Amino acid sequence: MTETRETGGGGTRPLLTVRDLSVQVATEAGAKTVLDRLSFDLTGGETLALAGESGSGKSMTALAIMGLLPKPMARVSGGAIKLGETDLTAMDERGYRKIRSARVAMIFQEPMTSLNPLMTVERQLIEVLLEHEVCRRSEAPKQALRLLKDVRLTEPERRLKQYPHELSGGMRQRVMIAIALACDPEILIADEPTTALDVTVQAEILDLIRTLQAEHGTAVLMITHDMGVVAEMADRVIVLRHGRQEEAAPVRELFAAPQTDYARTLLAAVPRLGSAPARPQAEARKKIVEVDDLSVRFDITGGILNRTIARVHAVENVSFHIRERETLALVGESGCGKSTIGKALLGLVPWDGSIRVDGVQTRGRSRAMMHPVLRDIQMVFQDPGASMDARMTVGEQVIEPMRVHGLARGSELQDRAEWLFKRVGLSPDMLSRYPHEFSGGQRQRVCIARALSLSPKVIVADESVSALDVSVQAQVLDLLQELQEEDGLSYLFISHDMAVIDRVADRVMVMRLGQVMEEGPRDAVLRDPQHPYTKRLLAAVPVPDPTRSRPAMPDAAGIEEASPIFPVGQSPQRIALHDLRQGHRVARVAATTP
Amino acid sequence: MPILGYIAKRGLQAIFVVVAVTLFISFAIRLTGDPAVMMRESANVTPEDLERVREGLGLNRPFLVQYWDFLSGLVTGDLGASFFRGPIAPLVSDALGATVLLALTSLVVSLIISIPLGVYAARHRGSVSDQIIRLLSLTGLSFPNFWLGIVLILIFSVSLRWLPASDFRSPASLIMPAVTIGVILTATNLRIVRTTMLDTLNQQFIMVARAKGLSERSVIYKHALRNSSIALVTYLGLQFGSLMGGLVVVELVFNWPGMGTLAVEAIAQRDYPILQTVISFLAIMIVAVNLLVDLVYMALDPRIRLE
């Protein structure tokens, strides 16, 4: 948006020069090069993005610059990293310690685990101030408070005395940024700083990084897999793949005219809000899932006698239906109850209300009684690695549900497993392999095959593509769509990603604190949102278009901080929905600010 | 408030456990037979004599009354008299002192050895020194403690005549019993420290601490070790019961005048007032140590304080 954006790092002398940097990792099969002769410059005040999918070597680059490659497995095997006139690759540990945080600072992906759980925020801030002798010990608390104010943390005096577990993910990332900027470094390396955060929090944190960068003139090395974040943050981009540079260009040029095939595919795979084609009407079809007044509450026990002292109202009086061959998307930020609804449908959490699957009431069914229902409804989880047994072949895992439900036996099982593997685009001879022999995308295909093995009518897809790289994500979404067209499957598609939802959903339900804020046909909710919360969610989504100037975030007024935890006997105020037109229903805004 | 509530809750639980355990001990000891009959060493005891003995010991009163006397004795310190050796209180307090001295010495020595070695092994995972440390720890684990005690006596007392073989006469007497217990403790503690340290060192906040430019010392001892120590403290609490069991055996081997020796002598003489008191004290110590562990846990980990 400023002039320097276009020119990039041409003029002034670079702060950081990386030349032919190579990193090798020791594996059982010998040394493997994970970063191959990467070169770039970074000048003051600019943002360079290292973009790429998993295994592209982008995080390795960051760790190499910080001198924090995990020893003895990884090492810099060639090339030079120069910070000004200092050659970092020749630096000993003692010298490097004076560089870290003082001249080059880093923030990490997981704000939940980046802070020491046993130390107060204040101690963690003061520690870095004293280490680099930014100020005297007596002034350190005052300085720490100023840093928290700089990162716009609410109630900074109180936050200083708090422990990490008392802060939300967004607050922790602000604390991390405060720690990183404590010594006013020349370079800030941000490794996927917002990937683990909700989309509105992501927008706030990105905004904060931009503001602080402008105030301090810091150079930012932004490491991300998200082309939307690249478009919003970067002046220049380097696209990495398998440790090699695929393309390097100013951000507008890259997005307007990518030169390499890989950059083109990567950009094409990025889901864009509002670009998805229209979906066929599902109006007259049969209702497969009917949910009425669903509530899920979890008890919180405490006190000397371990009595229930409060309840988490995870889901509160939610009603919806899914028709045959229809995809209903549930969207909302973490803790809004969207995953809990999916679990309730499969009887994995205790619930109240009414759930009917293909006309069969599932209320009050024991686990054994749920068996016949589970033939019709299956689930695909977020983390395909964690949802498979590592010590069982994938074939066994696909066959197991069929055997449990007595659908087939003997060689027939094997035949069906082979057929299922072909359906999800895997080769049948992979059946005898173990999960670790597959990539993330292939594993998710195995999980889909397992879910399909019972020929269900409904699949609950809980963040099923969130952990996958964009190109793989696009393929898995295509597969899900194909299965829907051929088998007439219905999906309950749970996701926090608005662009993915835009691509797959027929109808969208926006949830917050266990209640529905807005629901309706996809085009109505996503193109013409009525509730301020929906508007805010949509505005926060990073747009993969660097030419678009960033609109201001809608005012958060009317969306107050709130918690779904209530004392026993109290319930959240029930929010009524009113009809706008054709199934587009929205919560009365007044009801959220009593 | 939550902190006080937590302490109150744990304290109440501990009291409940102590009452239950002592009740069971009193009851179980009476199942072993009538002490009055067992006291009859020689013949020529008339039934009237027996009755007089029972009355003198208060054995003809209802069980719960006897238990109540015993329990209030534990609280007030009036532990009554043994059958043969006079008042119990001085006997038990001497033995308790000797046992606590032995247990604490072994524990402290074992921590001084196992923490730095465990940390070192974790930091140099897979190296030759790590392998050696692990091998030594496995060797230490495989010694039965009574055997180790006897071997130590044979070497250092019988052959070399450097250290006294038994009893508690000088500080030198402490060395062999403490080493015997310490070897096993060190071997297990070393493994716990190494494993939890490996876990902690892989955490993101350790990377962050390094990225702050802190010295390796600060990273390891200020950030990593405190986080690892939570698991170590938990384990020590759980381990304390078996440590007490091991102590009894080792005390016998070295004729150490502690609770174990006292208990075994009491069993041999069928002196059940002593036995009942000693076992109850051992049980109370285990409960107290676990209560202490809970409190240390709370001091270490702010997340516990919220519960």
From TrEMBL, chain A:
GO molecular-function terms, A-Z: ATP binding; ATP hydrolysis activity
Annotated Gene Ontology cellular component terms: plasma membrane
Subcellular compartments: Cell inner membrane
Domain of life: Bacteria
Family the entry assigns: Belongs to the ABC transporter superfamily.
Chain ranges of the ABC transporter domain: 18-267, 289-538
Protein name: Glutathione import ATP-binding protein GsiA
E.C. numbers: 3.6.3.-
UniProt-listed GO biological process terms: peptide transport; transmembrane transport
Species this chain originates from: Palleronia abyssalis
Entry keyword set: ATP-binding, Cell membrane, Hydrolase, Membrane, Nucleotide-binding, Transport
Transmembrane stretches, start-end: none
Alphabetical list of SMART domains matching this protein: AAA
Bilayer topology annotation: Peripheral membrane protein
CDD domains: ABC_NikE_OppD_transporters (cd03257)
InterPro entries: AAA+_ATPase, ABC_Ni/Peptide_Import, ABC_transporter-like_ATP-bd, ABC_transporter-like_CS, Oligopep_ABC_C, P-loop_NTPase
Enzyme class label: hydrolase
PROSITE patterns (UniProt xref): ABC_TRANSPORTER_1, ABC_TRANSPORTER_2
From TrEMBL, chain B:
Source superkingdom: Bacteria
CDD domains per the UniProt record, alphabetical: TM_PBP2 (cd06261)
Keywords: Cell membrane, Membrane, Transmembrane, Transmembrane helix, Transport
Membrane-spanning segments: 12-31, 100-122, 143-162, 174-193, 230-254, 274-300
Coiled coil: none
Subcellular location: Cell membrane
Bilayer topology: Multi-pass membrane protein
InterPro entries hit by this protein: BPD_transp_1_N, MetI-like, MetI-like_sf
All copies of domain ABC transmembrane type-1, residue ranges: 96-297
GO cellular component, one term: plasma membrane
Family as reported in the entry's similarity comment: Belongs to the binding-protein-dependent transport system permease family.
Protein name: Nickel transport system permease protein NikB
